[in-house]
Amino acid sequence: MRQKLKLTAVVLSMLMLFTACGAEPIETIVIVEETTATTTTETTPPPPTETTVRVTAAGDNLIHSSIYNQAAKRSQDGTYDFDFAYENIEDIIVGDLNILNQETPVNDEFEPATYPCFCSPSQLGDKMTDLGFNAFNHANNHILDKGTRGVIATLDYWGTKENIAVCGAYRDTADMESISTLTINDITFSFLGFTEHTNGLRIPEDSEIRVIYTSETDVIEQQIKAAREISDVVVVSVHWGVENSQTVIDAQRNLGQNMADWGADIIIGTHPHVIQSMEEITAADGRNVLVAYSLGNFISAQSVNDRMIGGVLDFEVTKQYSDNSISIDNIKFIPVVTHYDYNYSNVRVYSLDKYTPELAASHGINVNSPFSYDFIIETLQKNIDEEYLVLPEE
């Protein structure tokens, strides 16, 4: 520490008096004032002990003609404006990572098409990324609806986007083995997608396109183990189960356990178009693995009452820096409801906290299938444990 001395000298001098006996000096007084200057030492905050990523995941984004036709009518530039369909769920797609099963191919090489062979315009994909989705699964029964050209056109479209992950459909084996990842808040996620079938459509033998089927368990095991090597968290999207059935079958549970044992951390199920149960299972190495067997539809224009009810998973993934261990916490199932008016007009999706008994009573589906707010609550409580289920406060 440096010190500064400030010297103040007060010298009192008086004229020397000379007498006959000689001169006597007058006393000189010197006053020294010392001032000490201190320095401030900056302390470095301790390094963080953990990091967390908030994740949401949604079910089947199933775009029927009534949805893209209304988007065309609402557009001001001759394309498609999907804002109306999704404006009532924007506040629940709020994760750092937001995952979607994109049920239909997305590209502009083909005209928009509906059931049984779907295709959606690129403005749909633009809307999904605007909402915040940054990971997309295409391993589902409609990925081959426009053949291999449709797969390539869809992958080309997603290739125009930055900072997103796409899984489930691949240009070739090398593309499949180059596993898609995203690193968010210092946690690296890898993404894999598998499907039970593709509606009987097959990839031609001379094509290099790859889609992984759930029957290819050796490939699934290899993929999961490879993803485990390059990431902190392995996310698997799997299209499985029985359509329009709320019952989880043994094939789902067995494959789910196998995938957990091979290294999956999060398993997101789709395809039945209705919600099924969710649980946390224990992997062979002791890890806790989240499995949602079916999130139902995110949006659709189907005509069966329980297909109007879906869910968005909301949870946190935390990594401890001391040992790089991962935990999945604060798991929530946020219900969503697809609503349309008479004759499939004005299709839109609501989070349940914005939906009302009056809307349910006026749902256009009542022409074909009875629907009510009580039916929604009963269906949710039947399938989702109360520890996860988020219901509006009464």
Structural features, described:
The protein has 394 residues and is α/β, with parallel strands linked by helices. The protein has 9 helices and 18 strands. Strands 5, 6, 7, 8, 15, 16, 17 and 18 form an 8-stranded mixed β-sheet that branches. The chain has a 6-stranded mixed β-sheet with strand order 9-10-11-12-14-13. The protein has a two-stranded antiparallel sheet with strand order 1-4. Strand 7, helix 4 (147-158) and strand 8 form a beta-alpha-beta unit. The model is unreliable at 1-35 (pLDDT under 50).
Main traits of this protein?
single chain, 394 residues, 8-stranded mixed beta sheet, 18 strands, 21% helix, disordered N terminus
Rounded to an integer in angstroms, the radius of gyration calculated over CA atoms is: 33 Å
Task: Estimate what percentage of residues fall within beta strands.
Answer: 25-35%
For the sheet with most strands, the description reads:
8 strands, mixed
What is the H-and-E element order?
Answer: EEEEEHHEHEHEHEEHEHEEEEEEEHH
User: Strand tally, please?
Assistant: 18
**Tally of alpha and pi helices:** 9
The helix/strand class is: alpha/beta
Shape: globular
What is the subunit arrangement here? single chain
Helix content: 10-25%
Terminal CA distance:
66 Å
Q: How confident is the prediction overall: mean pLDDT?
A: 92
Q: Low-confidence stretches at least 5 residues in length (pLDDT < 50)?
A: 1-35
